[in-house]
Amino acid sequence: MYSRIAGIGSYLPERVLTNAELETMVDTTDEWIRSRTGIERRHIANDDQTTTDLAEQAARRAMENAGVTPADIDFIVVGTTTPDVVFPNVGCLLQQRFDIHGCPAFSVETACSGFIYALSIADRYVVSGGAKCALVIGAETLSRMTDWNDRATCVIFGDGAGAVILQPADEPGIISCHLGADGRYHDLLYNPYGTSKQRKPGDTEGPYIQMRGNEVFKVAVKTLENLVDQTLAENHLDKHEIDWLVPHQANTRIIQATAKRLDMPMDKVVMTVREHGNTSAASVPLALDTAVRDGRIQRGDLLLLETFGGGFTWGSSLIRF
Ligand code: COA
């Protein structure tokens, strides 16, 4: 038994924040942002929109695309680092929205790698017969933990959600998932506060994303190179057999480095970073949905998804779409 992506959907909040607007907020320029990151605009949730709101829209679109209804869903896993509340988790909040009750529902908190971690878990449940219609989501409102006075981070991130429906299949589907993490790098990209570790008077860091971008960049490139090599080697695949690279949309230069390693022309790499910015756990399913809906990715294509995020965490998935 294998699992396959039966449907996909995504959602971006309506509000668009352009580089030109950021120029009025912090000491930056459109030219600097575009040349260093490739980002031109990003979507930002309205004040009354939460991660669950974004996830719900993406999930509804994925269910419609798969031809299933909420009543068919028997497993929900959400990759997110920006849940609405500490608990109930976003999966349980979605059960309420869809009026479905009883199936397992939980979230995984691995920053930008959240979707691929979630996909890997759902794949194992479907393959082992533990789920027949799994809803897998990556959804974030990173704008809520962005310091809008910090030019080194606020130009990078955006909000959004992407979702897939996984169902059993006789042929793969999800061919393999490869996950990894290394907590040694915890201080290169992090948010210093949560529920157990709270802000104290005199603390200098705010409850926002902290990043040493230059160092993150170097580890990301190296890790992703190793990750794609590992994914190809473990599947005895030649790099030229991959039809599409669907990378985490962190930064154009990081994506180009991975594409170069795979010897892939950039027109075989799905790029949404220009319009979406870095939407963390939502970035890979958003990119995948974009290329499926515009007709670039077709059924039967061989896809390599990869991601890298705070922790550090990373993950890849080889998929016959
Ligand atoms: N506008 C203008 N200048 C900025 C700026 C901005 N938005 N942000 C930083 N700078 C300045 C810095 O202050 C620094 O100035 P200085 O030389 O006077 O000290 C200069 O630009 C260079 O900073 P540096 O951090 O070395 O730039 P960089 O070329 O490494 O680009 C990033 C910065 C963040 C774009 C880049 O490091 C990056 O993309 N890193 C990976 C981040 C990432 O992907 N994180 C998520 C992983 S999931």
What does this entry look like structurally?
With 321 residues, the protein is α/β, with parallel strands linked by helices. The chain has helices at residues 19-23, 30-37, 51-66, 90-98, 114-127, 151-154, 213-234, 252-261, 273-276, 283-293; strands at residues 2-11, 16-18, 41-43, 75-79, 105-108, 134-141, 159-169, 174-181, 189-190, 210-211, 244-247, 302-309, 313-320. Strands 1-7-6-4-5 form a five-stranded mixed beta sheet, sandwiched between helices. A four-stranded mixed beta sheet has the order 8-13-12-11, with helices on both faces. Strands 2-3 form a two-stranded antiparallel ribbon. A hairpin with a 3-residue loop joins strand 12 (302-309) and strand 13 (313-320). Bound molecules: coenzyme A. The site of coenzyme A (COA) has 20 residues, from helix 2, helix 6, helix 7 and strand 12.
